[in-house]
Amino acid sequence: MGGTIRDETKSPEPASAGVEPLVFGSGHASAALRHTTHILSSIPPGEAGDPVLARHADQIHAAPELRWIGYLSTVGVYGDHGGAWVTEETLPNPSQPRTIARIEAENAWTQLAERKRVPLAIFRISGIYGPGRNALANLADGTAHRIVKPGQVFNRIHVTDLAAVVAAALTLWRTLRRDTAPQP
Q: Which CATH architecture has domain 36-180?
C-alpha cells in the first residue's frame, strides 16, 4: 500500500506502518496510480485548483483497478449561517476564496468519479484535533488564542474518529458492493 507525502525526509512513520511513502508529484507516485484501487485525497486546493487532479486526473481516469475515491473537504463550504444549525441536507454556500475552491474541487472529483463510474465519498470535516493538535498543545507552544463570541459553537473531530469514519465508509462500500454483485 502506498501513500503520498510532501517530503520524504519529514515523515518516516508511513513506512513503519506498512505504507510505502511516495513523494507527491514524483514519477513513483504517478506509476503507482496504474495499480491503485482506492484513492483518499486530503490535499487542499490551491490557487490553481486541486493539485491532485491538476497533475493526475488523466491517470486516475485511466487507472484500470480503481474502485473507490474519497475526498476530505471541509464544513466551511456551508458558509456562515448566522448561528443556525447546519446539517447534511444544508446546501453549500461558500463565501471565502478557499471554501469556494473546495466546492470547485468537490465538483471536479465528482465529475471524475462519474466519468470513471466509481463511487466517491466526500467527507466535509470540521477542525481536526489530536496528539499535538489541540488547545493544550497550542497553549504550551504559545500559539493559543481566545475566541469570544456569544453563542459560538465549535465543531471538532478527533483524528482517530475521522480515520474510523473513513474506514467505515470504505467498509460499507465493500459490503454493499459484495451484496449487489451478481451471483454465479
A: 3-Layer(aba) Sandwich (3.40)
